Amino acid sequence: MRLSDKDIKKAIQQGLISITPYEDLERIQGVAVDLHLGHEFRVFSGHKIGYVDLAAPADILKKMLDDVMQPAIQLDPHERFMLHPGELVLAVTHESISIPNTLVGWLDGRSSLARLGLMVHVTSHRIDPGWQGQIVLECFNSGKLPLALAPMMKICAINFEQLTSAVEHSYLDRRDAKYKNQQGAVASKINHDQQY
């Protein structure tokens, strides 16, 4: 069952959901809370290697990923990040989110931006129970024109779904949780032997 605006407000006031910084309740509309684009971006430098072998041994894969990711770019509030057609960039929400073991979050793009070709998550839009940290966005321009992304623009929204019971292993409890308390536009950390 998805939480309504009234239930989201109540969960925030009770401290079950934490969104920081959090200015006003007007950001909650219907079943979602608007989130803003942060100041940090990570881009791929595909010219260093020809491909990424996702089935390579962990040490080789880590080196490949280190080779294709450039260091984080920090934008000033007045600057813009130009996302060209067919490009993928990792960005991050301005807000940090914390959700309890009894809820799962779902990230959605904004319809008005999607109509211009902007996707904010390629496939990973689930925010696991027990999550804490900023949310990395996989911004992809599927349109025909470059898109200028501005820090602090409304970029997406998160909604929350009530679970039938608390999960046995929250995200923070999992040994294989690679993005605990994530801050910034963290690159992929593929782990071939994930287990609880």
How do the strands and helices of this protein lay out in sequence?
Elements (H helix, E strand, L loop, with lengths): L4 H9 L4 E3 L7 E2 L2 E5 L3 E4 L14 H11 L4 E2 L6 E3 L4 E11 L4 E7 L1 H4 L3 E2 L6 E2 L4 E10 L5 E3 L4 E9 L34
Antiparallel strand pairs: 1-7, 2-3, 3-13, 4-5, 4-7, 6-12, 7-11, 8-10, 8-13, 9-11
What does this structure look like?
The protein has a domain at 5-39 and 75-173: Deoxyuridine triphosphatase (dUTPase) (Deoxyuridine 5'-Triphosphate Nucleotidohydrolase, Chain A). 12% of the residues lie in helices and 32% in strands. The chain contains three helices and 13 strands, in the order H-E-E-E-E-H-E-E-E-E-H-E-E-E-E-E. The strands form three sheets. Strands 1, 4, 5, 7, 9 and 11 form a six-stranded antiparallel beta sheet that branches. The longest helix has 11 residues, at 58-68.
Q: Considering DSSP H and I runs of 4 or more, what fraction of the residues is helical?
A: 10-25%
Report the CATH architecture of the domain at 5-39 and 75-173.
Distorted Sandwich
Q: In this structure, how is the largest beta sheet organized?
A: 6 strands, antiparallel
CATH superfamily of the domain at 5-39 and 75-173: Deoxyuridine triphosphatase (dUTPase)
Q: Radius of gyration from the CA trace?
A: 17 Å
Distance between the termini: 27 Å
Compact description:
With 196 residues, this protein is mostly beta strands.
Quickly list its features.
196 residues, mainly beta, Deoxyuridine 5'-Triphosphate Nucleotidohydrolase, Chain A, 6-stranded antiparallel β-sheet, 5-stranded antiparallel β-sheet
